[in-house]
Design a protein that fits this description.
alpha/beta, three-stranded antiparallel sheet
């Protein structure tokens, strides 16, 4: 298995386009590098699942951009389904995990590949894998775009990883903050001042899902840990 690219915060990632400089402090992974890495992941998946009955299970909603690019590079037959998980809590205490969308497909006896945007603490992924394992798939693997090994608290791992990144609050390429910035074509780091003045919630993905400084205002989208 080839080494996973490790990304550090530096100007090598690329300059922030002028239109986003008010909100984004730095580009962590530029668009071109994302595209190359997604193609490489697709090649590995294509090779590993050739001739097999593959079902992709994507976690909503930060995965959508990554997923769309990934599947367009796959030519093998596959089925696609989605699962939703949220964490409902208050203050700095992670809340209970609630499945907000269930699978429609029967995955029993099939090869299942879970696709997610970011693997952080591993709490959400552990719950998802437990739920899927109970459905008796033939095999169960995980593909993530981003991974933060330093914050792992659960013994879970991904079989396919795009990039290993530092513990920064990132947005873009599907990742959001308060449902904004998903459409950025790169993975960037928000200016710290944009995260101030709101309630702190330690979570896993998307909006306030990717760092200990993640924050959101009451009444916004529920987060997952």
């Amino acid at each position: 298995m080839k080494a996973v690219p490790v990304v550090a915060l530096s100007r090598r990632g690329g300059l922030v386009p002028r239109v986003w400089r008010r909100d984004v402090a730095a580009v962590l992974i530029p668009e071109e590098r994302l595209a190359r890495r997604v193609r490489a992941l697709a090649r590995r998946i294509q090779k590993d699942y050739q001739g097999r009955d593959l079902v992709l299970v994507a976690l909503l909603s930060g995965t959508l951009v990554f997923l769309a690019d990934l599947i367009r590079h796959l030519t093998l037959p596959l089925r696609l389904d989605f699962i939703g998980v949220s964490s409902y809590g208050a203050g700095t205490v992670p809340g209970r995990l609630v499945f907000t969308k269930e699978l429609k497909l029967d995955v029993a006896g099939r090869d299942v590949l879970v696709v997610d945007d970011i693997l952080d603490t591993g709490r959400t992924l552990r719950r998802v894998l437990e739920k899927l394992e109970a459905l008796r798939p033939r095999s169960l693997r995980v593909c993530v775009l981003l991974e933060k090994k330093g914050r792992r608290v659960e013994p879970v791992k991904a079989d396919y990883v795009g990039f290993e990144i530092p513990d920064l609050f990132v947005v873009g390429y599907g990742l959001d903050y308060a449902e904004r910035y998903r459409h950025l074509p790169f993975v960037g780091v928000l200016h710290p001042q944009l995260l101030d003045g709101a309630e702190v919630v330690e979570t896993e993905r998307g909006s306030a899902r990717n760092g200990p400084a993640a924050r959101h205002s009451a009444g916004r989208t529920a987060r997952r840990v």
